Amino acid sequence: MSQFTVTGQFKARDGFAEFETTIDAENENVAREHALSQLGSQHGLKRTEIDLETVEEGDN
């Protein structure tokens, strides 16, 4: 598995909040899905309220 750094922003109470998270995943698509699932669960967001800007594979 590789580590991916996912950055973006999500709709918050006072506009948009930026985030950066590191996720272990098999490929970029799986990393995107985990990030959407994780943020949605933690902040009560729908996928349409989350904007993923970059997904970069890190050194492992």
Structural notes for this entry:
It is a single chain. The protein is 27% helix and 50% strand. It has 60 residues and is an alpha+beta fold. It has one domain (2-57): Ubiquitin-like (UB roll). The protein has a three-stranded antiparallel sheet with strand order 2-1-3, covered by helices on one side. Strand 1 and strand 2 (15-25) form a beta hairpin. The radius of gyration is 11 Å and the shape is elongated. The relative contact order is 0.35. The mean pLDDT is 93.
Structural class, by secondary structure, is: alpha+beta
Q: In percent, how much strand structure appears in the residues? A: over 45%
H-E order: EEHE
State the helix count: 1
> What share of the residues lie within helices?
25-40%
Terminal CA distance reads 9 Å
Number of separate structural domains = 1
Main sheet summary: 3 strands, antiparallel
Strand order of the largest sheet: 2-1-3
- Low-confidence segments, given as residue ranges, are none
